[in-house]
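Exam revision sheet. Question 4 asks you to relate a sequence to its structure. Input first:
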Amino acid sequence: MTTPSFDLRSHRPAIEADRIDDLRRRLFGGASSRPQVPGYTIEEELGSGAFGRVYLAFDPRFQRRVALKVIAVDSPNARVRIEREAHALARLSHPNVVQVYDKGPAGAHGYFLALEYVDGPDLQQWLEQAPRSLSAILTKFLEVAEGLSAAHRAGLVHRDLKPANVIVGSDGRVRLLDFGLARADETSLTSTSGTDVLGGRPLPTPSVDDPSQSIEGDPIALHESDLARPITARGRFVGTPSYAAPEQHLGTADARSDQYGFCVALFEAVYGRRPPAMRRGAHHDKPLHAVPIDFNPGKRRIPRWLVALLRQGLAFDPNERHPDMATIGRELRHRLSTRPARVRGAWLAAGTAAATAMLMTVSGAIQAEAVQACRQDRQGWPTAWVEHRTAIRTELPELGNQLDDWSTHWSSTRQSTCHEPEPERSSELDACLDAGATGLGHLVRWLGTADRSTWQALREHPGPSPLAGLVETLPDPIRCATGSEPRTTPAARAAWDHLLAARMELAAGHGPDAEREATLATEQARALGDRGLRAAAEHTLLLAGASRKEPREAIAILPLLVRALEAGERTLAADIAASSLTLHAMGRLSSSPVTPSTEQSERLASELAALRTAALATTPDPAEDPAVAGWLRTAEGNARLLLGDAAGAQALYREAASLLRQASPQVSPAIVALVDLQEAIAISAQKPYARAAIPRAARAVAEREAVLGSTHPAIAHERHILGEISMRADDIEGALRHYTDAAQRFEALEMTEDQAFSQAEIVHAHRLAARRARHEAQDLGSSGADPTEAWAEFERRRHLALRETLVLERLAMALLADESIVPARASERARMWVLAVASYAYHPSCWDPMLKAAERLERVCEHLDGADPSCLEGQRLRQRLLEQGKSAPATNEGCVPKLDGADAPSGH
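Answer key, structure tokens:
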């Protein structure tokens, strides 16, 4: 009899892998085998490196595979590192740089970054898979150079460029990977000791950050300024030694260091060996010395131009290398396009020609030649851009650079269709690219035929980009390549066409037409659910409203700014933020903005909090892009000023001005001076410091006048602001000088409405002086002192006020004839008539003109809310005068000021 056996393995319950991992963590403190990232299904681990593990995952929202890079957040520095990588990659939009899709916490494991999943070998593996022709090698390295050049234009340095960090996709396109070491470009190339480590000229000593210093606070909730802090102290090596430049071994790196690494990798690919390593003296603190590089190819045939390119790129002194990566890219592109036969036959990467021929099939060779011919045929920018490029770059260099970048991406993506094996997908890609080229053609043909006044209007656009939102909302070649570009549908193209028409009308000075087109673009973008297009359209609508002198306050601007940031449109966001400050160029900037209601204040505070959240989540640290950071702080300062926090606004304006100065020449000195003027406005709102604001504001306006010229409308507006600041500081005589100056400038510019507003403030200043003189006379009489001089001053001032009121009424009556613009600035017009009523009330002979002025005030107030301050004040004033039973005495004098020549106003 056999002993029964009991095998219970088949009866064990199935336990999910995540429960096993959880049990392992609880029992042994170990980490789970795979992280839990909400919204993603992890399929397998792809690899690991110094800064994290990479997994292949599926994103069910977009039905696509992604590469999830997960880094354990075991210190604040680790969090900063991955945030830096996210910002670095998010800033780049280039076909030769891997795209970032998403980021966020990864449970107990730390933080994740969702990247474009590219199936293919890295560049080193690609080189080793089969013998590669020199042409094929140079084509791949050209794409590396273009991706790296794009990173450098964004102010980023890779610092670990090597073949293992470059992947060759199954479509044949190269992408740069692993920007985890990237940070803002450094220009200092020294050791921490300040010694001449390169054996050349002395260089300045950089500051050294203490690597042991921790970042205070919650390691998960860091301030954006933390992202600007170097994680590795300067003076410490970061990178891969075999590919690192001499200066990088000493702890500093800039774009020229990436160039050195690129040339090491290219040298290795062409020669089959790396250049020799550098050597240091007997002691660690001795300078580095270069080791001569042998550029002799032996039996291999390497073109002399390539040897020269590598020799310069591998120069020991960074100042002797190529000016930038774009220079290398242009040379490679030129050689590949103009001398293809010579390059293709120059050299085979390994083996003899006979061995290579045995390895390649005839069909493979034919296919390779067909792809090469296709790429040759598809290279080059869109025809319309080539035709108008010179004219546009001459007028607007920054816009020209932006269109150059877009066209380069378009051309590179168009060439990638040569590797597309599926004809249907190739047709879809071509259709997407054609849609972008068509839109670009509409834009550049309009610009290419613009008249001088249109170019002037574009150059004087208040924000950082005169056509912000247009180029950004063209069909994106990168998204065309990934199949995720929704802006090629007829509805999307129609919305974009309306947006372009609105910007064209706006530049031509046709405000109503621009507003109509912008309204259509906004409605269609909302229906499409396209946040970026909607933000661009609403921004144009904002500018169009300002062109008919109806600027929107920060209450309307902040939500628009948040939407632009959330849509990833940072250039547009910066332009919207700038508009919140500079809309006075088309409307009117005032040192005394309308005080928001309680409801508006609550809404404004809520929008301000949303702005801070969006800015922290979507923008890089200020050191990487000071212009964007400066504009965002300007917008926040405007909101703070509206909320009554003048001190907070002052600090934000000062920080904004400092950042915008760092962005020179991208930001004009005239714009920085305008921020300085806004700071002076914030100072003047703080009563104890109001007088200190006057010289600061005067300097800012003088700086702007030196740049813009004395006849620019903005200078007339800002002279008026100087008057308002002087009034806040109780400097009536100074205010009168500035108001009179502004009124005369507006008159010369034939800006009657603005002239009338300045004239109204002249009346107000004289009335205020008269009231003070009357109070002084009454006080003197009560104390037994002689009030004669005070009463004389009262008489002089009230008659001056009357004289200026007659001028004001003449201007105001001319405006009343144009009923079409009454609603636009009705509140300011109401103030004019209130001041006229009050001034007439000083004179018994002006009873009838006073009643007529009150009637005109009522007409203007019909267009305003019943709570408008000027309308309420006018009603109270008129009612009080009527209750007093005051009537005009019988006199033949009429309503005429009694002044001798010495007391008469300057007249205008």
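Marking note for examiners. The longest helix spans residues 752-783.
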